[in-house]
Amino acid sequence: MAIAYADDGAALWYEVRGGGEPLVLLSGQANDHHWWDGVRADFEERFTTLVLDQRGTGRSDSTGSDGCSTRSFADDVRAVLDHAGFARAHVYGTSMGGRVAQWLAADRPERVGRLVLGCTSPGGPHAVECGPEVRRALTQSDPEAARRALLELMYTPSTLAGGAGPFHTLGDPTMSASARRAHLRASAGHDAWDALPRITAPTLIVHGTDDVLNPAANAELLARRIPDARLRLVPGARHAYFEEFAATATPLVLGFLAETGPAAG
């Protein structure tokens, strides 16, 4: 465990484990590094994994959260890479972490080896947004009902009926209300459409076919917009495909990361 410092002095907590080439794992909106707890060990067998608490979550500062964006979060990741001594790393970002990863790869191409974008979106007017019924379900006044709605967006009915868990993707309970709102604004304000063609890292895009929180049509948009990107859909998976469908998704990602040369295909 270590602390890096962002350009504005905010403390950013991160942890490095495993062995091999460095792999940064970027979590979704309003979630700390525990987002990856269900699958991180599988990546550590081949890679040195780096997870971090993004600004406003976990043990990282909330300083500057009010004005944060997915692009400024990418600057925070760059500061963490500097502190960890990683000149270059593979990056796997899911949900809002995928939005952050887009900016890191576009703005700092020399820092990104291979890029995996999971259950994410280009943002802006070109993106396919979730329906109003999804937003209503997540913002209802009954906290338990809202939590249940989030579970159903993340995981399939069979998994929920079986009582599987614990689930690692339901948000950081230690976040302040203001930091949670800041994450929501940053994710909602994401628009990397014009920057995506600048991404030079070999790129794999992964998405669950049954994801309605972030519709799978966004994966196709990203694949067309990022040069030579490769698209793989996980049948039947919802937003947390990487956790629930790890038996399919993790080998897919590991295989891609282990490749050499261009990733066109």
Structure summary:
Helices cover 35% and strands 18% of the residues. It has 265 residues and is α/β, with parallel strands linked by helices.
Low-confidence blocks of residues:
none
Q: How are the strands ordered across the major sheet? A: 1-2-4-3-5-6-7-8
Derived structural class: alpha/beta
Cα distance spanning the termini: 38 Å
Secondary structure: elements and pairs:
Elements: E1 2-5, E2 11-18, E3 21-26, H1 40-44, E4 47-52, H2 70-84, E5 89-94, H3 96-107, E6 112-118, H4 132-138, H5 143-154, H6 157-161, H7 177-188, E7 203-208, H8 217-225, E8 230-234, H9 241-244, H10 246-258
Parallel strand pairs: 3-4, 3-5, 5-6, 6-7, 7-8
Antiparallel strand pairs: 1-2, 2-4
Helix pairs in contact: 2-3
Features:
265 residues, alpha/beta, eight-stranded mixed beta sheet, 10 helices, 8 strands, globular
Structural summary, described in words:
The structure is a single chain. It contains 10 helices and 8 strands. With 265 residues, it is α/β, with parallel strands linked by helices. The protein has an 8-stranded mixed β-sheet with strand order 1-2-4-3-5-6-7-8, with helices on both faces. Strand 7, helix 8 and strand 8 form a beta-alpha-beta unit. Helix 2 packs across helix 3. It is globular, with a radius of gyration of 17 Å. The protein starts with a strand and ends in a 7-residue tail after the last helix. The model has no long low-confidence stretch (mean pLDDT 95).
